[in-house]
Amino acid sequence: MTTIEQPAAAPGTTTGAGTTTTAASPPATVVPRRPTAPAGQQRRRIGGMRRTDVLAVLGALAAGAATTGVLWTQLGPFTGILGYVVVTWLVTVAWFALLVSFDENRPVVKDRIAAFVVHSLGIVLFGALVFVIIYTFKRGGPALPHLNFYTQDLRSTGPQDALTKGGVLHAIAGTLIELGIALGIAVPLGLLAAVYLHEVPGRFSRFVRTVVEAMTALPDIIAGLFIYATLIIIFHLGPSGLAAGAALGLTILPIIIRAADVVLRLMPGSLKEASYALGSGQWRTTWHVLLPTARSGLATAVILGAARAIGETSPVLLTASATGYINLDPLHGPMMSLPLLAYTLVASPEPNEITRGFGAAAVLLILVLVLFIVARTIGGRAPGDLSGRQIRRRELSSLRTARRFTHHEEHLSTELLSTEEWKEEPR
């Protein structure tokens, strides 16, 4: 007997026997289970050095020193400590790049190499600065404890005299006078020129900016020769502190202009727009908004110029000459400065003269530090920070304004009362 298979009935249809088949249920969707979130948020470090970075730096330093040592002593005929240091640094950078590449991808390796190069060069420059300061104070240390070194000049001091005789008072006075004249010339002109370049665009301002950029690369001796040819030869002024100050002012003028111009360019334009929107003019906006906001940067520009002027030697030698006497008159007679005194004394073969020269250089470093602190104290406050004097002036101005408003209210009340009484009088 042959069995005939019947075709399967479609879901939801009725068969011949009168029974209805039910539709098959679709398969259930399976959703993968999510991992449990951590209880606290994990911080991601975006700066600083990790443990792997420290190990990579130490390993690179050890490998670089060893590689250069083998190269210097076994493989090549190299000598000299400077070449050894330079080659060690280059080999250390290469080893550091190799060690970092084991754990990081290419962008991270480039970032680590750039950071290593920048930080290492910064450490080298800081080390050089510390070495210069320590060496200067060490060589000039025997002259610094003596009081006469700061209260006497060299008018009666010979090259072989002891350190208890003579001093650098004439050089300190000459340096301060010449620096004051230079800043008195360069700071007003420099700030005015920077404001002009920033506020008055045009062909002439572009020409002025080009001249300023060209003057930045002007050798210092050229400024000294220019002042020597004009004030001393043409106007017969003679070697003096005024001529030296004018030469130093001409030297630092482009530095102050460029630094101040860059600072003013960095100021947000929204501050000026807000001032103009409130009805202020260009001059009032510049004086009350732009310059106070850029005060800290302008103080830095002045500090850069002062640091350049206080260490110049050749313009002072051409325009003020040299002397062992103290001279407080900037219009007549030669005038000594600390850099020029240090240069002339160190060139002497006598040990005491060399010690005095390094002592003068140490006093110059201290003087620069003091001037830097004073300039930062005066102009280093952030925008909006007021000094004690300014706060007192604001308080007095507020009190005067309050009194004026009170008096005005009393006057209006009196007038109103008089008007009401006049209306109430019988006619």
Task: Sum up the structure in keywords.
67% helix, disordered N terminus, 427 residues, 2 domains, single chain, mainly alpha, 0% strand, flat, MetI-like fold, transmembrane helix
Helical fraction:
55-70%
Number of separate domains: 2
The total of helices stands at 15
CATH topology of the largest domain: MetI-like fold
Label the CATH architecture of the largest domain.
Answer: Orthogonal Bundle
Could you name the ranges where pLDDT drops below 50 across 5 or more consecutive residues?
A: 1-21
CATH superfamily of the largest domain, by name, is: MetI-like
- For the record, give the distance between the C-alpha atoms at the N and C termini, rounded to a whole number: 141 Å
Tally the beta strands. 0
Query: Class by helix and strand content?
Result: mainly alpha
Tell me the radius of gyration: 39 Å
**CATH domain class of the largest domain:** Mainly Alpha
Mean pLDDT: 83
Describe this structure in words.
- By secondary structure, the chain is mostly helical.
- The protein folds into two domains: 51-140, no CATH class; 152-384, MetI-like fold.
- The chain has 15 helices and no strands.
- Helix 5 (169-199) crosses helix 13 and helix 7 crosses helix 8.
- Residues 1-21 have low confidence and may be disordered.
- Residues 7-41 have a biased composition (Low complexity).
- The chain crosses the membrane at residues 54-75, 81-102, 114-137, 168-197, 217-237, 243-264, 358-379.
- Pfam families: BPD_transp_1 (PF00528).
- Keywords: Cell membrane, Membrane, Phosphate transport, Transmembrane, Transmembrane helix, Transport.
